[in-house]
Amino acid sequence: MNRFAQLFNALDATTKTSAKTAALAAYFQTAPKSDRVWTIALLSGRRPKRAASSTQLRDWAAEAAGLPLWMVEESYPIVGDLAETIALLLPAPQSRSNQSLTGWIETLIALTDQPPEAKRAGVLAAWDSLETTERFLFNKLITGGFRMGVSRGLMTRALAQATGVDESLLAHRLMGNWNPATTDFDDLIAETDLQGSTKPYPFALASGLEDKPETLGPRAEWLAEWKWDGIRGQIINRPGAFALWSRGEELITDRFPEFAPLARALPQGTVLDGEVLVWSNDAPLPFALLQKRITRKTVPKKLLAEAPARFLAYDLLEWQGRDLRAAPLADRRAALMQMLAQLPPGLPLAASAAVTAPDWTTLTKARHTAREKSAEGLMLKRLASPYHAGRKRGDWWKWKLDPYTVDAVMLYAQSGHGRRANLFTDFTFAVRDGDALVPFTKAYSGLTDAEFRQITDWVKKHTIERFGPVRRVPPELVFEIAFEGIAESPRHKSGIALRFPRMLRWRHDKPVEEIDTLDSLRALLP
């Protein structure tokens, strides 16, 4: 664990990508192989099952530190992170442990199914043998909120430097649902035979288009598609293996049983990249219906009938067992269309249609109709581009519509986390419904640090009530809230839910009497 703590300190001490890469590469060359595997797993989002609840950790930390529980509770919103709060409050350790990262993770895994008293004893013993940074990391492993300021791409680049294996090959080998508890480091980075494997490819990602599309060059060099609001996924059909993977590397095959016929219909050695949508009458249904499918491990017949799924294919990544990613998009697209044309009718699969327009002006007009088609805008892909791993700026662009906006008043404020732990950054907003103010969304991003500091000073001076870390304030500060979509929601008092709400600006110029109404929001419902 000491070696892992040194790595964390090295990464935390710099913002330079080159320095982070060098620190990781050195670690991957010298750390025990089992620790390397767990570090790769942690940095790519694979974490051990949570061994204890936050409430238990607070109680045990108060006991170990000889402090009343309320003091731990009051310290948490100031520090902004429970794992760090506990690490700072605990007394100095009475012993020192040389156990490795793997050893501590195995300890936590063993504690997961133990009764509370056994968990308490195990955690207290660990805290008493770890120094502050090691305790912090141990606590992060318990709570599952592990972050080290390292992207998956940076981690893969460092691993490539350490092993001499090509970065794009490593990115592919690290995909899928491998288990760090049973995976050997050498096997993990070794070449694998995809025969009978459901391993997906790393997804190619797009950047947001900020300039006018005319800056991209001739319109004829680009494929335009609708940007659908669904779940990005890959369908894998190899000999003895059929699977549907989400972009978040979650295996979701069982949640979409209507795709099962594709295992027989698709040629063996086929991998499709596309979008999972709830689809009816030749059009996508609201994302809220798809969300019901996402959250269910098993799907009842009633939900299957209400929210039938469809896969719109963007790309053909593998054909007859051959990796096509290096081929130009134009060639992959042609092969995709040819393959789909040979399939029997009635399958829940189709190509995501190209948006035809002879020039950028005409395409701009087409983009304005995106919401009529339940799309978020357009995707622009260079026809000569390969299928990149991750985000490579220049070949793929998201050309989204401008967001919806609404003016609302702040009712509640809460402290942020991490470097913003001492600022109020998380706000609850309301709109008018007759003479009443109805809360309808929360937002915590979009403003500058200077604005957050100014709002924090105001909140401290104008707090009416406190509910733990939440403060109620008078309805005086008005903000413009941007969001990507809106849907009905019986779970919320307002009856609506927003997609990706954020603060666009602080409306110093607008009094609370002029904020929007709940009726104006409902008018936006599809």
Structure summary:
This protein has 526 residues and is α+β, with helices and mostly antiparallel strands. Helix content is 35%, strand content 24%.
Structure description:
By secondary structure, this protein is an alpha+beta fold. It folds into 3 domains: 2-143, Orthogonal Bundle (DNA ligase i, domain 1), CATH 1.10.3260; 204-400, D-amino Acid Aminotransferase, Chain A, domain 1 (2-Layer Sandwich), CATH 3.30.470.30; 404-522, Beta Barrel (OB fold (Dihydrolipoamide Acetyltransferase, E2P)), CATH 2.40.50.140. Helices cover 35% and strands 24% of the residues. It contains 19 helices and 22 strands. Strands 4, 5, 6, 7, 8, 9 and 10 form a 7-stranded mixed beta sheet that branches. Helix 1 (2-12) packs antiparallel against helix 2 (17-30), helix 5 packs across helix 6 (82-89) and helix 6 (82-89) packs antiparallel against helix 9. It starts with a helix and ends with a helix.
